Amino acid sequence: MAARVTVRDVLQMKERGEKICLVTAYDYTSARLLDDAGVPVLLVGDSLGMVVLGHSSTIPVTLDDMIHHGRAVTRGTRLALVVIDLPFMTYNVNVEQALTSAARVIQETYAQAVKIEGGEPVAPAVERLVQCGIPVMGHLGLTPQAIHQLGGFRAQGRSAVAAKALLADALLLQEAGAFAIVLEAVPPEVARIITQRLRIPTIGIGAGPHCDGQVQVFHDIFGLFSDFLPKHTKRFAEVGDVIAQATARYMAEVRSGTFPTAAHAPRMDPSELAALEAHLGVPAEAP
Ligand code: KIV
Fold it and tell me: What's the rounded Cα separation, in Å, for the pair 5 and 213?
């Protein structure tokens, strides 16, 4: 039987030059579909605040939300490495807070790793988590938990100074022990330079083709989220349209009486029906 993907496997994929594919998952069903399809790494992103819970940002997401969804995702996987986001302000107060939050996530969900946003300020937390045996994925560039500071969902690292700062942060996270780093919404040239300078894999989203891997949001690539279409995404299916068409067919059949049929309900032995009718003194209505 094949074994679950580990963080060592992810590092070896970079060494072999094998592109690493990640997709977000938020529940048992999506996790099963992606795991069965062979996606090696599933990310329970705090993007669930937007695409599952309907918030306008990831900021309202709580640690309990992540644990609730993370447990469902790990129940749906056999082979994928599961990484769970630590949400807003659950790791930024101090290293102890980061450790307590990450420990809850790992112990209560059975996931294999956590992801945290930010560079230099979170490097001590990354180091401590890794020392305690908790693998950490970093996240640089557009860090959605900092949108108020960044002035919205804006591309990052577009000036030489900003790109140098991103590279410095990436090197710090690597030294702190991160096993991979998400680069979100940074110019491909900058992502290429960072990717070339790191031993650990970079995982791009809106960062061009040179990263060691790519991550995309489930609802974006399968056409399930229509509030807005981020520039970094591509629709690989229009599942939302399929659901709309199927819903219309379902309602038409219920209204016309063609669904359900006798085949969609349990059968009653005719002798039991006869006994019931005898008891009631009237023939029961035909099903
Ligand atoms: O929350 C999330 O889904 C993410 C990815 C988009 C990288 O952080």
Answer: 15
